[in-house]
Amino acid sequence: MISKIKEHCGIVGIHNVPDAPRIVYETLKFLQHRGQESAGITFLDKDRLSTVKGLGLVEDALDPIILKSSNFSIGHVRYSTTGRGVIDEAQPLSDGKIALAFNGTIPNYINYNVRIDTEFIYEVLKNQEDIRQGIRKLVDVADGGYSLVVLTNKGELIGLRDPKGFRPLVLGKLGSGYIIASEDSAIRQLGGIVIRDVKPGEMIYIKNGSIESEIVARDEVHFCSFEYIYFSRADSIIDGVSVYRARVRLGEILAENHPAKADIVVPVPESSVPIALGFSRKSGIPLEYGLVRTSVSKRSFIMPSQDKRESIVEEKFGVVGEVVRNKKIILIDDSIVRGTTMKKLVKLIRENGASEIHVRIGSPMIRYPCYMGIDFPNKKELIANDKNEMEIAKSIGADSVEYLSIDEMIKAIGRQDLCHACFSGMYPLKHSYDFSKLSVSMKG
Ligand code: 5GP
Ligand code: MG
């Protein structure tokens, strides 16, 4: 059995709103960018929780016809690192009495007799008379990054953000009841009212329409910088910081400190558009959409083999020949992970007649795996693991490559309390982990 050790996902829970499962279904579509591998919904049906799940995008995975009417529901969209046998590990995980949907990674699950971290959470919660007691225990034993929603067959809805606050989670008002979701943009898009971010270490407990808040544990906050750089929607605001503004600032600082002589700035759509906008405005070099995104929805990143990843990149992008021909280009992306995307794009743009290509990246070099919920591969696969900027330029065929430094990134986002483990190797966890060991236990 192959288990996933990494979940970067979207979650939602709804309490006391008519047609909650249908609303959860809509919300999952608004959170689709956070996970495209599977989708699932649990809802309260009389005094039992029912769960439906499927593989792929929300609209392929779930048939809204089979959702019953209910006022209580949670849902999940999922990403993980391998592409096989995922349906039994799709979420929500439920035994009919409690259901949980989870975004993050809890790497110390390997010390327990469970296959994956989701099961670890379930094992801690399942035999507790009072679900709040289970949550307190979970926070006590879990080491990692996690945001979580739990629904019980008594109609209780719980939202929890880990004490270091690695992943986002937001509380809102929706009609007669409440909603808890990964991003505020999804709540607003539904017509709900955003109340506030769930605080790091905070448990929100909603029963019979009334809300209790409890800080279960306090710790130093380390919010995931990659949520701002790439992962969250640009129209989200996380802990008071606009994702869009952060991305524009990444681009501005990139232009200030890592300039290049060029005719046009070209973003790799979609995630790097605000970064390229910031770069263009600051440098005065015009922004041009030299790359278009086709409607191929599969993300190259999650394809299981390198061959497949490469062919998907080719399907995903088209080049506007007349924009790039005979031009010196600054090509902007939010990040380079394995280098697959950049290598292909540089080649495609050159084939279309560009004279120079200077790659500028709106994040620092990704050199370490993540154990807190982003699915970066092990060190050996990361292109920046053993290469400097010049060597990377050579390897992807660009005239130059420059990244932001960690300090520049922190300045751009404007938060001091960011996790930068994937860039720095400094893991703000209680214990240290070895990706290769986790991989071994994955296969066990
Ligand atoms: P690479 O092709 O270098 O392996 O990955 C870099 C590309 O993947 C960039 O265009 C970036 O926007 C995107 N990317 C970065 N991190 C992630 C991730 O966690 N998931 C997915 N699907 N894409 C990512
Ligand atoms: Mg991208």
If helices are DSSP runs of H or I spanning 4 or more residues, what is the number of helices?
15
CATH architecture term of the largest domain: 4-Layer Sandwich
For this structure, what is the CATH class of the largest domain?
Answer: Alpha Beta
C-alpha-based Rg, rounded = 22 Å
Strand neighbour order, sheet with most strands: 3-2-4-1-10-9-11
Question: Which overall shape is indicated by the principal axes computed on the Cα atoms?
Answer: globular
Descriptive account of the structure:
The structure is a single chain. With 444 residues, this protein is of the alpha+beta class. The chain folds into two domains: 10-222, Aminohydrolase, N-terminal nucleophile (Ntn) domain (Glutamine Phosphoribosylpyrophosphate, subunit 1, domain 1); 245-414, Rossmann fold (3-Layer(aba) Sandwich), CATH 3.40.50.2020. The protein is 29% helix and 25% strand. It has 15 helices and 23 strands. The strands form six sheets. Strands 3-2-4-1-10-9-11 form a seven-stranded antiparallel beta sheet. A six-stranded antiparallel beta sheet has the order 5-6-7-8-12-13, with helices on one face. Helix 7 (243-257) packs across helix 8, helix 7 (243-257) crosses helix 13 and helix 9 (306-316) crosses helix 11 (340-351). It starts with 9 loop residues before the first strand and ends with a helix. The model is unreliable at 1-6, 81-85 and 439-444 (pLDDT under 50). The structure holds guanosine-5'-monophosphate (5GP) and magnesium ion (MG). Magnesium ion (MG) binds next to loops.
